[in-house]
């Protein structure tokens, strides 16, 4: 069930973000992601509109929007491939006319996921935090 984020979701959301970030970005040292955990807790998540996917009392994924930016979408590694990410992205599409995001070019699975959900590449750039190439992608409601 997708529902709005509640304060007691914070720790599960952070754990999902860290585990999924490390798994999806094997080209970036895990220590980088761990060093960003406090920023996620104190800066990024409080600024976002967030929904979680909860099943049998456990948060298994989340999507975070900041305006029209899809700032984060992550699914617990143990739950990936079961449609949770698709459900979360569809939730985001119901509340926005347009969505933009950035994704590391080397994260082929995520790039393919976004393309399947109607996102198109609008530009390429370097991530200022890691120096890795990333794609800016956008989706627009028809």
From TrEMBL:
Q: Where is the N-acetyltransferase domain?
A: 1-142
Residue ranges spanning the membrane: these are none
Q: Which GO MF terms are attached to this record?
A: acyltransferase activity, transferring groups other than amino-acyl groups
| Record key words, sorted | Acyltransferase, Transferase
Q: Which PANTHER family match?
A: PEPTIDYL-LYSINE N-ACETYLTRANSFERASE YJAB
- The protein, known as: GNAT family acetyltransferase
The species is: Stutzerimonas chloritidismutans AW-1
């Amino acid at each position: 069930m997708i529902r709005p984020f509640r304060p007691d979701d914070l720790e599960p959301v952070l754990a999902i973000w860290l585990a999924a970030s490390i798994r999806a970005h094997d080209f970036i040292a895990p220590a980088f992601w761990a060093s960003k955990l406090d920023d996620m807790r104190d800066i990024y998540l409080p600024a976002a509109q967030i929904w979680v996917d909860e099943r049998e009392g456990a948060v298994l994924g989340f999507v975070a929007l900041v305006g029209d930016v899809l700032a984060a979408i992550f699914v617990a590694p143990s739950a990936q491939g079961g449609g949770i990410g698709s459900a979360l992205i569809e939730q985001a599409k119901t509340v926005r006319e347009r969505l933009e995001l950035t994704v590391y070019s080397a994260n082929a699975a995520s790039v393919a996921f976004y393309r399947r959900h109607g996102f198109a590449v609008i530009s390429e750039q370097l991530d200022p935090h890691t120096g890795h190439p990333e794609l800016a992608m956008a989706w627009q409601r028809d």
